[in-house]
Design brief:
Organism: Jiulongibacter sediminis
Helix content: over 70%
Keywords: Membrane, Transmembrane, Transmembrane helix
Strand content: under 5%
Protein name: DUF4126 domain-containing protein
Pfam families: DUF4126
Domain DUF4126: 14-183
Order of helices and strands: HHHHHHHH
Shape: globular
Length: 199
């Protein structure tokens, strides 16, 4: 009971980080930029070791990064190349975002929760968008990729904004979605193993 009481105060901050991490599954820098602005205008407080994320130099760097990232996904071939590094980058961004709002003294717990919750959510969603892009490239010859890029850009902005507005709700939806995806994958894997054993 005491452990639960110790964890409970951090749940809203954890869900805020998870909600923003979900957005980083679509684009890396958009949720980081939104988090920067939210901290800069005092909407949310950052952990003591992450205060740099809310400072002006970070605002400038992230704003430039957002513009380049959003534009780069409209360039043929470059979009698929970006997806090869976007997976690990999304996990790092999700970990960073979630850890930034967890005001926990123990860095192992702070970054551990950030990696498991934020990194897991971001990585799962990013993997899904990468598969969609590969499918789009295969079946449309890359023509459909620009539409997919627009969808991902819009989703990254909307999810980031809603994460700031209703963080607990968006965070819970993101966690539910990731759990649902992993359960589906696990069941499919089990079915394949069972079919191999029968054959």
């Amino acid at each position: 009971m005491e452990t639960l009481q110790n964890i409970t105060p951090y749940v809203p901050a954890l869900l805020l980080g998870v909600a923003l991490s979900a957005a980083s599954g679509f684009r890396i820098f958009v949720p980081l930029f939104v988090a920067n602005l939210a901290a800069k205008f005092g909407l949310f407080s950052l952990a003591d070791n992450m205060l740099w994320l809310g400072e002006t130099p970070a605002t400038i760097v992230l704003a430039v990064a957002v513009v380049f990232e959003l534009a780069a996904y409209y360039v043929p071939i470059v979009d698929n190349l970006l997806d090869t590094i976007a997976g690990p980058a999304a996990v790092l961004a999700g970990t960073l975002l979630t850890s930034s709002f967890l005001q926990i003294d123990d860095p192992v717990i702070q970054w551990g929760l950030g990696l498991i919750a934020g990194g897991g959510v971001a990585g799962t969603i990013q993997a899904g968008t990468s598969l969609l892009r590969l499918g789009s490239t295969k079946f449309t010859g890359g023509i459909g990729n620009s539409f997919l890029s627009s969808f991902e850009n819009i989703m990254s902005v909307l999810v980031s904004l809603f994460a700031i507005w209703i963080p607990i709700f968006i965070g819970l939806i993101a966690l539910y979605f990731v759990i649902w995806v992993w359960r589906k994958l696990y069941k499919r894997r089990q079915q394949k193993q069972n079919s191999r054993e029968i054959s």
